[in-house]
Specification:
- GO terms for molecular function: betaine-aldehyde dehydrogenase (NAD+) activity.
- It holds the Pfam family Aldedh.
- It comes from Spelaeicoccus albus.
- Its EC number is 1.2.1.3, 1.2.1.8.
- By secondary structure, the chain is of the alpha/beta class.
- It has 2 domains: 268 residues, Aldehyde Dehydrogenase, Chain A, domain 1, CATH 3.40.605; 188 residues, Aldehyde Dehydrogenase, Chain A, domain 2 (3-Layer(aba) Sandwich), CATH 3.40.309.
- It is 39% helix and 21% strand.
- The strands form 6 sheets. It has a 7-stranded mixed β-sheet with strand order 15-16-17-14-13-19-20, sandwiched between helices.
Length: 472
């Protein structure tokens, strides 16, 4: 049986123990994964520390060329990477191909951007020359979630390497293979060994060791708010900066004047993409009472048409990532104390053995209930109605999360008011981007985390400012 191993200093590294990589569509093993721990993390950080000074001294033009070369290599291996991502996560093959394309774009985008990323000069008066430099932190550590493993790793690694850092990545237990493959492909693209290292293993072992390692200068994490808090504590203990992208309970807010037919495809896709396992999924549907019946009827109708099956068959909806996650989703729905399941709320009868759950729409939930406030992370959307703009804002902002929100309205003044009043790191109007494109700074307010990835703003997160003051 194939073993997915850690990749450290340009080579595969075995671990004493392994664990099974489970196919969420069938419940059977795809292979074994090396169970790395503190020893492997020590080797990976040492390799990154040794490689980083030379990499930082590499001219930006050369780094840019290598990043663009990596983009081409990723696309060259598009079929292979998409299949690995599809099998590991369960997501439909079309979505896995999209993830490969976005990963390639991250390397190309940050390769093109790094050559024009400079410090500033500051006028301080005659006889003084003052300027700033943007310098890398050194070694960056990244603990990556299982929902978009290829995308999440690529956006963090491309930014870190572009700015002259070296990186160590700990992929999620459930989805390790594309992370290891990307590290291997970087060598094929011409990067020096050691600038990117991947340690496979369990979060409580390899992830904890990486976040606590004294030679890691910067931490990035994507995942649950509970684990993000642990990462933040580990960073605080060593006084190193952290970028956290955590949970979400994002709202689609449909006003009475909305173009409902234009909105419905987005309302559906925003919760069904990746089986709802997206931090910025549109998991709350807030609808003005005048259009409530129309919107719910049309969304439920689209849900009932959705094809469900193994990701490799490329249906509209694949399985959840694991039976553990399936149990979490079931638990939320089965414990519902107020509200009506309009459609779904069950496991499809003909897909026993996999982690499948039908598209689910629940209407009339209590805004203070757990299912209305906490992240389900499955194809489940809860609906509530409102009577006026103030009530819409109160509902939209009524959770501890604040990652993304969308307003559906044809009133331009209302659109601008909602963009101002919604508490969220991204606000969409008459569209929904589930995190938006590569160019758009992404991150949350409140318990959705802090720091920004994506866009040129991400360069700021992976560099530190040095101010130079010179008397002439």
């Amino acid at each position: 049986m194939h073993i997915t191993q850690s990749f450290i200093d340009g080579r595969s590294v075995r671990s004493a123990d392994t664990f099974e990589n489970i196919d969420p569509a069938t419940g059977t093993a795809l292979g074994l994964v090396a169970r790395g721990g503190a020893d492997e993390v020590e080797g990976a950080v040492a390799a990154a520390r040794a490689a980083q000074p030379g990499w930082a001294a590499t001219p930006p033009e050369r780094r840019a060329d290598l990043l663009e070369s990596m983009s081409a290599v990723v696309l060259k291996h598009r079929d292979e990477l998409a299949r690995l991502e599809c099998e590991d996560t369960g997501k439909p093959l079309t979505q896995a191909y999209a993830d490969v394309d976005v990963a390639a774009r991250y390397f190309r985008y940050y390769g093109r951007g790094i050559e024009s990323y400079y410090g500033r000069t500051i006028p301080l008066g005659d006889g003084m020359h003052v300027y700033t430099r943007r310098e890398p932190f050194g070694v960056t550590g990244h603990v990556v979630a299982w929902n978009y493993p290829l995308q999440l790793m690529s956006r963090a690694v491309a930014t870190s390497l572009a700015t002259g850092n070296a990186a160590v990545v700990k992929p999620a237990d459930e989805t390790p293979r594309t992370a290891v493959r990307v590290a291997e492909l970087l060598i094929e693209a011409g990067f020096p060994a050691g600038v990117l290292n991947v340690v496979t293993g369990l979060g409580g072992e390899a992830g904890a060791a990486l976040s606590a390692h004294p030679d890691v200068d910067h931490l990035g994490f994507v995942g649950s708010t509970a684990v993000g808090s642990l990462i933040a504590h580990a960073a605080a203990d060593r006084v190193v900066p952290t970028v956290l992208e955590l949970g979400g309970k994002s709202a689609n807010v449909v006003f009475a004047d909305a173009d409902v037919d234009a909105a419905v495809p987005f309302l559906v896709k925003s919760i069904l993409q990746n089986a709802g396992q997206t931090c910025s999924a549109g998991s709350r549907l807030l609808v003005h009472e005048d259009v409530r019946d129309e919107v719910l009827s049309k969304v439920a109708g689209e849900f009932r048409k959705v094809s469900i099956g193994p990701g490799i068959d490329d249906p509209a909806l694949g399985p959840l990532v694991s039976t553990k996650q399936l149990g979490r989703v079931r638990g939320f729905v089965d414990s519902l104390d107020r509200g009506t399941v309009v459609t779904g709320g069950r496991t499809p009868d003909d897909l026993a053995g996999g982690a499948f759950y039908a598209p689910t729409l629940i209407d009339g939930v209590d805004p203070q209930s757990e299912i209305a406030r906490e992240e389900v992370f499955g194809p489940v959307v809860v609906s509530m109605s409102f009577a006026d703009d103030d009530e819409a804002v109160a509902l939209a902002n009524g959770t501890d999360y604040a990652l993304l929100a969308a307003a559906w309205t044809t009133n331009l003044s209302r659109a601008h008011r909602m963009a101002r009043e919604f508490s969220a790191g991204q606000v969409f109007v008459n569209t929904y981007g589930a995190g938006g494109g590569v160019e758009l700074p992404f991150g949350g307010f409140k318990k959705s985390g802090y720091g920004r990835e994506k866009g040129i703003e991400a360069f700021d997160a992976y560099t530190q400012t040095k101010t130079v003051v010179m008397k002439l």
